[in-house]
């Protein structure tokens, strides 16, 4: 049976449970406007999640803080293989560098 992406409302408490309870392999949060706070909770889950392989965060207004959280989580997470965060234009050069460094150290993301 093929896995279908799960789309949810941008509720931080809902995002927080993904690392502990659910065994999702794909999470599609495209255009959910989760913002920096939502990304922070998501990244807390990514640090301990061992099943999520695809994360779609495009067009979410994650901002500079969200990019920092994402970069920190990517240094730890070793199961995520596909990540899309395009269209988050409010990410500055410093955050882009932080994400670039994290992705260079992460050997599994394509």
UniProtKB/TrEMBL annotation:
InterPro entries: Leu-rich_rpt, LRR_dom_sf, PP1-Reg/Actin-Interact_Protein. It holds the Pfam family LRR_6. It comes from the Eukaryota. SMART domains: LRR_RI. PANTHER family: LEUCINE-RICH REPEAT, ISOFORM F-RELATED. This is RNI-like protein. It comes from Adineta steineri.
């Amino acid at each position: 049976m093929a896995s279908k992406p799960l789309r949810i409302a941008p509720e931080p408490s809902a995002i927080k449970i993904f690392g502990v309870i659910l065994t999702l392999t794909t999470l599609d949060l495209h255009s959910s406007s989760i913002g920096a706070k939502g990304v922070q909770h998501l990244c807390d889950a990514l640090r301990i999640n061992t099943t999520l392989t695809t994360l779609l965060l495009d067009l979410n207004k994650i901002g500079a803080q969200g990019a920092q959280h994402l970069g920190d989580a990517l240094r730890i997470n070793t199961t995520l293989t596909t990540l899309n965060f395009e269209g988050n234009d409010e990410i500055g050069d410093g955050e882009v560098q932080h994400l670039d460094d994290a992705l260079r150290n992460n050997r599994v993301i394509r």
